[in-house]
Design goal:
Length: 118
Amino acid sequence: MSAADELRRRAPHVAAVYEETRRTVLEDGVVERELKALCARALGGIDVTARTERERAALDWAEAIAYDSDRADDTLWRRLHANFAEPELVELGYSIAIALGQQHWLATHGIVEPGAAP
């Protein structure tokens, strides 16, 4: 069990909800797991390379969510809609938010797993 999981288990209801999120959103879902993990690694400070426009749009959106919402301009939204269906955008945005929040929260506890998907 990871240190992050040990921390979550201090509040069993939190651990249960997180496990459901991990299973249904981060690992499964309508967006490929690898793309969600790529965004999580980028948010964790790992240098990643986009191989496709779909990956580049996802990484640009992750940066907009994490660092500057003004980056989510009309051009980015056109790129996102060209590469993702609405359910994919909802899931990807949610997974980016979870990854970012978990990384920051765990860091405040001294648990640092750079670039790890939560």
